Amino acid sequence: MLRFDNIVFGPIHSRRLGSSLGINILPENGKLCNFDCIYCECGWNKDGTGDRNMPSAAEVSKALEAKLSECAEKGTVIDSITFSGHGEPTLNPHFPEIAAMTVKLRDRLYPEAEVSVLSNATTAADPKIFEALRMIDNPIMKIDASTAEGVALVNRPTGHYDMEKIISALERFHGDFVLQTMFFRAPQFDTASADNLPGWMDIVRRLEPREVMVYTLDRETPEKDLTKLCVEEMTALVKPLIDEGFHIQIRG
Known about the structure:
By secondary structure, the protein is an alpha/beta fold. 32% of the residues lie in helices and 19% in strands.
């Protein structure tokens, strides 16, 4: 499964973000997430090493400044400086400080790049996390299923998951965020089913995000028997939203 050996890695080509310089502020040798998604490229939570050591803001700052300076000297294109890594980045207790520091370094060393975070949105109701996310150009928030039952099957939260609380927290962005959803089929769940897709579209309509990222499986998944969807099928599924004027990025 996917592992990152450094706090700052890449840049790598991202289907959704272009040339992306990644930041892993989670344990280097383990996965730390309050989801255990059946498609996670980092594998199951139980297969992690148990490492819970996370870098400090000072350690992230040092690594990021060095990497950005190196990339600038080489003329490397960076479209996005992206918080991703081994799980949910906002679980690092220093995330607000790290986010603010990252924006300052970006402004000084790579002003043409955007700052992005890939998050499962479970911490967005926390005032400090929310304010940190508001500093970031692309707060990319995940909702994969339209019901708590669907979330339990797909994302397998490790604690209590309150869908209404999550949606209410995302409403506070007033549309200035990106909604991200994985489209796929599994024996226990189908994104395109009548039990899921209409409800998901209603969530999109309620939140009115500035962009919706629809994508599908690309790497090895811990749960087997998952099926990816092609771009044409995903486009047909979200056509009602496209017709309503929503900006939807679709990636196979």
